């Protein structure tokens, strides 16, 4: 759904770029499609995937030339909608309270956050050594997917975690360089959207792991275990590499 939405927006906005400053004719139609796709995702429900899709989609719309005032109003509307989604599902509200103070419920809603910090903290500067993690042995839930960065930080320490973040920043920088230098509007917007998917997903995953964001189910791109997620991201990366051949 994420990649399909980016493909649609890149094609649509490359053809309607002159109208993007008009809310009704230029901005409202793609927003309607994004809202419909987000609603389908929330039927699962999967707030994390929806957040990544919306973040990458709004980046594409912003780069196309949408007015900041329009996007600011949408941001306020989105915050109100997010509050309604949280209020509608008790488990989401528990995640928010656990994010604010995980020690209120250390064996329930706050368990994952606490165990993740127990993995990141002892890693120190150089880590415990590759394969020497303790938290992955039935302490930290999903250590191979959503919380793989916790285990990496525990085993490779601050240096290893920082190196991985630098590699992601390099990937994002190269992707944005491709988006800026490619002459075709469709290719430029497509590259921007793909970079947005990687950037938002990395930001959310690492933010959750280190306790800066509430817990949500988002994998770490190219690192977490998972067939469908890895296939999607490798496909997106292949498209981005192909687009880079046409950059100046």
Give an account of the 3D structure.
This protein is mainly alpha-helical. The chain has one domain. The protein contains nine helices and no strands. The protein has helices at 2-15, 23-42, 47-64, 68-88, 90-100, 111-120, 148-181, 185-209, 227-244. Helix 7 packs antiparallel against helix 8 and helix 8 (185-209) runs antiparallel to helix 9. The longest helix is centred in the middle third of the chain and has 34 residues, at 148-181. The mean pLDDT is 85.
Blueprint of the fold:
Blueprint: H1 2-15, H2 23-42, H3 47-64, H4 68-88, H5 90-100, H6 111-120, H7 148-181, H8 185-209, H9 227-244
Mean of all residue-level pLDDT scores: 85
Please tally the β strands and state the result: 0
Helix and strand composition category: mainly alpha
* Radius of gyration computed on alpha carbons: 19 Å
Helices, by number, come to 9
Strand content: under 5%
How many domains comprise the coordinates? 1
What about the largest sheet?
A: none
Helix content: 55-70%
- The poorly predicted ranges are none
Provide a concise account of the structure shown:
The protein has 248 residues and is mainly α.
What labels would you give this structure?
248 residues, mainly alpha, 9 helices, globular
């Amino acid at each position: 759904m994420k990649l399909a939405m980016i493909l649609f927006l890149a094609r649509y906005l490359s053809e309607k770029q002159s109208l993007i400053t008009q809310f009704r004719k230029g901005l409202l139609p793609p927003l309607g499609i994004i809202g419909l796709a987000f609603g389908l995702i929330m039927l699962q429900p999967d707030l994390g995937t929806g957040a990544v899709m919306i973040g990458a989609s709004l980046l594409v719309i912003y780069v196309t030339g949408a007015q900041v005032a329009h996007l600011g109003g949408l941001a306020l509307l989105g915050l109100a909608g997010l509050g309604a989604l949280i209020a509608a599902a008790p488990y989401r509200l528990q995640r928010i309270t656990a994010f604010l103070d995980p020690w209120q419920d250390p064996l329930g809603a706050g368990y994952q956050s606490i165990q993740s910090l127990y993995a990141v903290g002892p890693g120190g500067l150089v880590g415990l050594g590759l394969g020497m993690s303790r938290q992955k042995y039935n302490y930290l839930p999903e250590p191979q997917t959503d919380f793989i960065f916790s285990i990496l930080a525990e085993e490779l320490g601050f240096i290893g975690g920082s190196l991985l973040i630098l590699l992601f920043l390099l990937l994002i920088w190269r992707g944005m360089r491709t988006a800026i230098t490619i002459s075709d509007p469709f290719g430029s917007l497509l590259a921007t959207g793909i970079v947005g998917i990687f950037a938002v997903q990395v930001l959310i995953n690492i933010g959750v792991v280190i306790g800066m964001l509430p817990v949500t189910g988002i994998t770490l791109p190219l690192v977490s275990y998972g067939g469908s997620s890895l296939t999607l991201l490798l496909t997106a990366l292949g498209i981005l590499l192909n687009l880079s051949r046409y950059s100046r």
